[in-house]
Amino acid sequence: MPNTPRRILLAGATGLTGEHLLDRLLNEPTVEHVLAPTRRPLAGHARLENPVGELAQLLPALSGKFDSAFCCLGTTLKQAGSQEAFRAVDHDLVLAFAQRALELGARHLLVISSLGANPESPLFYTRIKGETEAQLQAQGWPQLTIARPSQLLGARLEPRLGERLAAPLSQLLPGKYHGIDVCVLARALWRLALEEDQGVRIVESDELRKLGR
User: Would you list the DSSP string of 22-70?
Assistant: First the structure.
């Protein structure tokens, strides 16, 4: 029988994928409560709790009991402004959120990583993603799902020129390199949340597309 997450902790709800995932969660009849801390306020909903502020400062005050946690945090080197600032979000903040979710009773963490994540990668971006994956696994989650999407396709509030230029090409690439629509990714994440497998599961982009159809 599939798992039915009822109380969910969500980080990154104002991001491209996070906002689609939040909408899906709030429209799922089995979901009783979503706690989504954000920098800016979200639209109100009867089942949504939305503390506002910097996530790192909000984490210690988060309370409640949760079944599952979704981490949609992520930035770019350009947005962050430096490698140190990028690491602070995509590594340090992701790990801090995951640890707090574990302390609040979540047994399943679903986190968005990246195509090509590898702690031995010569590329800074994919190396940090790989290091983060490895350290999440070391936290001892009963169930950890790592999604590795390729190029994300969808309209951002603040368009990224590089992504906009790369998007048409990504839709011509085969297999796991083919771009993935954020609505499809959000559906895939929810389907993965319903699974009860123990241990670590890494889901590449081609499988995410199939799951999100």
Answer: HHHHHT-TT--EEE--BSSPPPP-TTEE--BS-HHHHGGG--S--SEEE
